Amino acid sequence: MSLQVDVYVAPPIRAETGSEDPSKQWWSPISCTLIQGPTSAVLVDTPISVQQSEDLAAWIKTTAPGKNLRYIFTTHAHCDHFFGNPVIRKHFPSVVCVATSRVVQGIERTLATSIPRWTGWFPGGQFQAEEQIIPEALPESGEFSIDGHSLFGVPVKHSDTEASSFLHVPVLRLVVAGDIVYGDCFQFLAEARTAEKRQDWLQALDQIDALKPSIVVPGHKRASQADGPYLIEATRQYILAFEEKVNQLRDADRVEEAMKKRYPQRWNRYLLQVSCASSVSAL
User: What's the pTM value of the predicted model, to 2 decimals?
Assistant: First the structure.
């Protein structure tokens, strides 16, 4: 039996951003990918809150009943992709959290410096700050396996953050892209705030494109949105459009309005706002 893949999309939750605009008060939906074989499974990324993660755990038990969840692979060092790890491990005590070595280092830095910011956005004990898990680093090859099938954690130079990677599953022609690839959510460009870093992100998209995947799972998307290689080009075009508007308008509010007009269906306008402010200030 080969592997199969299922995608759970954790729904948007309220974020205390300080904005009075309702479109800037909700966090993006988060993709969590389950890859399973006859006896074992791998989960890629977990959401933010305890409740989101409890719902994910229940879904895993229904989707892969009786399977051994062997690994949680974290694609990158943003908290909205690993804060749920302790909840999942409570339900699957033998699970091992893994990531590429650079992502492990990034998670260590993030946990040392960023908890107050995330607590501000998600107060009241919504996530388990004191129980966070530092993943084990994969070997340099990035290879690990379930049920005789190899999976590869592949590092990239930059995406929406520096410590980033994707998971490649050759037998499925699958790439679980984390935040290298986006669906219909505004892309976070506050860290990719310079032309050089945006070029690095474009090169990361080229890395994925070169594998010619049939299935591409983005880090954030609408639950109904299909997972496919078309999202690579959509992400690329968004970056190019954003860069064009930043260089042309050179005003954060005007860039924000231009991107909202071009992408009216996308989620999380708060991240659009901070991306515009950061990138314009870097000019």
Answer: 0.98
Give pLDDT tens digits for 55-87.
999 999 999 999 999 999 999 999 999 999 999
What gap in Å lies between CA 218 and CA 174, rounded to an integer? 11
- Sequence-separated (6 or more) residues with CB below 8 Å from residue 147: 1, 3, 37, 38, 39, 40
- Sequence-distant (6+) residues with CB within 8 A of 107 are 74, 77, 82, 99, 134, 135, 163
Q: Within 13 A of 240's CA, how many CA atoms are on the CB side?
A: 9
| Cα-Cα end-to-end distance for the chain | 53
Tokens of 271: 């991240």
Q: State the residue range of the domain holding 59.
A: 4-281
Tokens 């008060």: give the residue. Answer: 25
CATH number at residue 113: 3.60.15.10
Q: How many domains does the chain have?
A: 1
- DSSP class of 98: E
167 closest CA partner among 159, 156, 183: 156
